[in-house]
Write a structure and sequence with these properties.
A seven-stranded mixed β-sheet has the order 4-5-6-7-8-10-9. The protein has a six-stranded mixed β-sheet with strand order 3-2-1-11-12-13. It is globular. Helix content is about 50%, strand content about 10%. With about 575 residues, the protein is α/β, with parallel strands linked by helices. Strand 1, helix 2 and strand 2 form a beta-alpha-beta unit. It has two domains: about 300 residues, Purple Acid Phosphatase, chain A, domain 2 (4-Layer Sandwich), CATH 3.60.21.10; about 210 residues, no CATH class.
Length: about 575
């Protein structure tokens, strides 16, 4: 009897050990990394000078850390290799910066990914971006598929012959639909045709028939990641995005991974049937804030978090790009994130300033409106370049127009603008209604409107003539005097400013404060297995409640910041 009991206990112990091993090996969680817009560029010499800054002179118009890009990618892959939970990697396009015309860039990226897969056994899945494939270019659709054959295509269940789309099973319960959203004959526009959309829907249905949940990856955004992105940044979001989101949500797709906009933003849409779809746009890995995403998914929940690149192999960078100075290398070693942030500031300033050049705007000197535009642009750039505080500052100029600029750590309006742009790229914008940043942004906008009006009016021949006469009696500028007089008589907001600020204020504020209910960088959402009739009914009710709240928000913003937000504090 004792022997029998011992045998039974031994078997029970053995079975429990096996069960624990199985449980440890498969805990029901699928974990993976998402990094987008790698924009790899091979290090070159000499390093190009784009501005006069002694450190960040090579900051380019995209604010992309091109020379450092390969080493940033290496660090990302190193982190994924060391993360025991990371099972695979997704990359939603723009693997190479000049991939259309410089095939070697793709070959270099593919070699990095190949080495990663070989050393870790963790697969990588890619899809093309607008920088990757072109017509009559070095990298055609077929060439792209060949170079990246090991990263999705070789194991694909289905590959579309006419573009770069394919499907592949990931984990035990999910199917990746990697959809080519690009038009290879155009620069940035989406190419998600009705045929391609139909293919995605068919693949989602096949996934469900096979007992798998469909996950979509494509380069272009599905949902707005900016206020009215379809108008402001139309080439970065697919056409008819709302109707497309409705279709995709109702065919069972809950997760969409995109890039292109270079922002870390999570957007959501609820269909008329109550199905919720999330578009996770991931910022460019090789520009500030140097981030990627980690996802941990079960049937019940989708947990996500942002990860940062905080250091790179500076010794290897110094060897590859000897033109970089010892001071630059030392600053990177001290705080690579801070270095990237300052690089970003100079790059965005360079880009925005470059866009204001007359040759960029296509305005000739003999154009009728040349003087008007020149006066407006000069007035704008003058204010952006001014120090916020001290002698000859924005604060002093604003006081002449009845505006108070609050104290802050921002040096110039350029620093404020690039900080807000940086917050958009980093996600989780937190500047609330009464924040210093929002107040400064709107009051600086009013100052530009008021002072630019004076500058534009000064460019008129008749006004110039009158100004010469009035200068003899101590009045420097007629438009400036009239504007200041109007402020004293009619108050802090005139009719034109009311109209302009009433429309712009909510958009500017939404750019600075993301309150859509879905955290951009870290959060937990309902998983694929939570879809049911009751939950969908709750989703529909929440959708229309949020819609009402949004309308109320915009109306209140228009009134608050058009009437009160710019008054003297």
């Amino acid at each position: 009897m004792k022997k029998f009991i011992s045998v039974v206990l031994s078997i029970a112990l053995l079975l429990s050990t096996v069960a624990l091993a199985v449980s440890a090996a498969d805990d029901g969680v699928m974990s993976f990394a998402v990094a987008s817009d790698l924009h790899y560029v091979e290090p070159t010499e000499p390093v190009e000078h784009n501005n006069d800054d002694p450190i960040y002179y090579y900051a380019n118009r995209r604010a992309q850390m091109e020379h450092e890009s390969g080493f940033i990618i290496d660090e990302f892959l190193r982190q994924c290799a060391e993360d025991e939970n990371c099972e695979f990697v997704l990359i939603p396009g723009d693997l190479a910066n000049d991939g259309k015309v410089v095939l070697q860039q793709h070959l270099d990226v593919a070699e990095k990914l190949r080495r990663f897969e070989k050393e870790t056994g963790k697969p990588v899945y890619v899809i093309s971006g607008n920088h990757d494939v072109g017509v009559d270019c070095a990298t055609t659709i077929d060439v792209f598929k060949d170079v990246y054959s090991e990263f999705g295509y070789d194991e694909a269940l289905e590959v579309v012959e006419s573009d770069c789309s394919y499907t592949a099973d990931i984990g035990d319960k999910y199917r990746l639909i990697a959809a080519d959203s690009c038009d290879p004959s155009k620069s940035t526009e989406d190419g998600l045709t009705t045929d391609r959309l139909s293919w995605i829907v068919d693949q989602a249905k096949k996934a469900k028939e096979d007992g798998r949940y469909p996950i979509l990856m494509m380069h272009h955004n599905l949902l707005d990641h900016l206020p009215v992105q379809r108008l402001i940044s139309r080439n970065f979001i697919i056409r008819w995005h709302i109707s497309t989101a409705e279709i995709l949500a109702n065919c069972g797709i809950k997760l969409v991974f995109t890039g292109h906009e270079h922002c870390s933003d999570a957007a959501t849409y609820t269909s008329t049937l109550g199905n919720v779809i999330y578009d996770f746009a991931t910022t460019s890995l090789t520009m500030y804030p140097l981030e990627y995403r980690m996802f941990h998914i079960t049937d019940e929940e989708i947990k996500y978090e942002n990860k940062k690149i905080t250091s790179i192999d500076t010794a290897a960078l110094d060897k590859a790009v000897p033109d970089l100075t010892d001071e630059q290398i030392a600053l990177m070693e001290k705080d690579f994130e801070a270095y990237a942030a300052e690089f970003f500031h100079h790059g965005i300033k360079y880009r925005l300033g470059r866009d204001l050049y007359f040759d960029q705007m296509g305005i000739e000197e003999d154009a009728v409106y040349y003087n008007f535009v020149k006066a407006a642009v000069t007035g704008l750039t003058d204010i952006l370049d001014m120090p916020f505080y001290g002698e000859n500052s924005v604060q002093e100029l604003a006081a002449e127009y009845g505006l108070v600029i609050p104290e802050s750590d921002y040096k110039t309006p350029w620093h404020l603008v690039t900080a807000l742009v940086g917050m958009h790229y980093a996600g989780s914008e937190y500047y609330e209604l009464e924040s210093t940043e929002v107040t400064m942004l709107l009051r600086t906008l009013v100052l530009i409107l008021r002072d630019d009006f004076a500058g534009i009016a000064d460019s008129l021949f008749l006004v110039n003539l009158v100004n010469k006469v009035l200068s003899n009696i101590g009045i420097d500028s007629l438009p400036k005097e009239l504007t200041q007089l109007g402020i004293k008589v009619f108050g802090e907001v005139n009719a034109a400013e009311f109209a302009i600020l009433g429309l712009i204020s909510p958009l500017l504020y939404k750019f600075a404060y993301d309150n859509d209910g879905v955290d951009d960088n870290n959060g937990i959402l309902p998983g694929y297995g939570t879809v049911n009739v009751q939950n969908n009914l709750n989703n529909v009710a929440e959708k229309y409640t949020n819609l009402v709240e949004k309308v109320v928000f915009y109306v209140s913003m228009m009134l608050k910041y058009a009437l009160k937000g710019i008054t003297i504090a």
